[in-house]
UniProtKB/TrEMBL annotation:
Family: In the C-terminal section; belongs to the glycosyl hydrolase 73 family. In the N-terminal section; belongs to the FlgJ family.
Domain of life: Bacteria
Keyword field: Bacterial flagellum biogenesis, Cell projection, Cell wall biogenesis/degradation, Cilium, Flagellum, Glycosidase, Hydrolase, Periplasm
Main location as per UniProt: periplasm
Subcellular location: Periplasm
Name of the protein described by the UniProt record: Peptidoglycan hydrolase FlgJ
PANTHER family attached to this UniProt entry: PEPTIDOGLYCAN HYDROLASE FLGJ
One record GO biological process: cell wall organization
InterPro entries in UniProt: Flagellar_prot_FlgJ_N, FlgJ, Glycosyl_Hydrolase_73, MGlyc_endo_b_GlcNAc-like_dom
Pfam families reported in the protein's UniProt record: Glucosaminidase, Rod-binding
């Protein structure tokens, strides 16, 4: 039986133009086989991107882990490559099958001849455009796009509106850039203290939750024009919301597994407006009644939020607790108070 080494991702998947030429030649003989090969390779690239995005989401609290280092990141990357290969060989996510089903309709069932725009040329041109334009990595190209639209994998689970609305730019919103946890805490703590008085929680709980949701302010949702949504808690825009909203791709956990979805999120004119809306959201929503009764206990409050369905990530409360008790927040708060 033919076997292939699983030690690393085969570079022919998306960097070797010679291999792309071989795919084109294969498509001339058996377009269906070539289409399936391209679809499987694309699925590997997609899964690698998904794992990379999940690793980036964890960086919000990894700074406090004494075992976290560049060496660990290197071996995690190797593990992700191995996992990608194993998943693809085990059937993958089903994406390859969908691609084959959709593009396979363009392949004629006769002698193998196609229309003037053949599937072989189509697949080859699509692949070479991704590989040859500016760099030889399709992953880099797509990752850059995801970085502009990515939201943390722990996005808020609120009932979504039935209708799908287009992305709308935000009318001259406040836009603040954060370069460190210290800057994030310095800006947010005064707002959190006011909001905490109304809600009854420790202001550090609000800062820690916002830090997880936005990666210490580095991943606040933005619209297509690059304007900040100022949504610190990734609250979704359902039918009850009449303000601005921004549509982005996000990761939601279904049956314990992350799945990419598109969702609409609320947008505000300022960070303070986003903080205040979080308080109103918690206070006015019946599902968080138990959480409101536990505001004096940060751990119990966060666990009650998760149990009520605030987020789909099964580790949501635990992640915030780690940030709350971590050195990054403690040092940032200390520096803010000294300043």
């Amino acid at each position: 039986m033919e076997s292939k080494s699983l030690g690393a991702v085969d570079p022919s998947v998306y960097t070797d133009l010679t291999e792309l030429s071989k795919l084109k030649a294969l498509a001339g003989k058996d377009e269906k086989a070539a289409l399936r090969e391209v679809a499987q390779q694309f699925e590997q690239v997609f899964m690698n991107m998904m794992l990379k995005s999940m690793r980036q989401a964890n960086e919000a609290f990894a700074e406090d882990d004494p075992l976290y280092s560049s060496e660990v990141q290197f071996y995690q990357g190797m593990l992700d490559q191995q996992l990608t290969l194993d998943l693809s060989k085990a059937g993958g996510l089903g994406l390859a099958e969908i691609i084959v089903k959709q593009l396979g309709q363009s392949i004629t069932s006769g002698t193998g001849e196609t229309e003037s725009t053949g599937v072989s040329d189509l697949m080859f041109n699509m692949a070479t455009r991704r590989v040859a334009s500016h760099s030889l990595s399709a992953v880099d190209e797509i990752s850059d796009q995801l970085a502009r639209e990515r939201v943390m994998s722990t996005s808020t689970q609120v009932s979504e509106s039935e209708e799908t609305s287009a992305d709308r730019s935000i009318d001259t919103p406040q836009d603040v850039t954060f370069n460190s946890p210290a800057e994030f805490v310095e800006v947010l703590m005064p707002m959190a203290e006011k909001a905490a008085q109304a809600l009854g929680v420790d202001p550090k709980v609000l800062v820690a939750q916002a830090a997880l949701e936005t990666g210490w302010g580095r991943s606040i949702i933005r619209d297509q024009q690059g304007n900040s949504s100022n949504n610190l808690f990734n609250i979704k825009a359902d039918s009850r919301w009449s303000g601005e909203s921004v549509g982005v791709q996000t990761l939601e956990y279904r049956d314990g597994l992350p799945q990419p979805e598109r969702a609409e999120f609320r947008a505000y004119k300022s960070l303070e407006a986003g903080m205040n809306d979080y308080v109103d959201f918690i206070q006015s929503n019946p599902r968080y009644e138990q959480a409101r009764e536990l505001v004096e206990d940060p751990v119990a409050y966060l666990q009650a939020l998760q149990q009520a369905g605030y987020a789909t990530d099964p580790e949501y409360a635990a992640k915030i607790e780690r940030i709350l008790g971590g050195t990054s927040l403690a040092m940032a708060v200390s520096g803010s108070q000294e300043g």
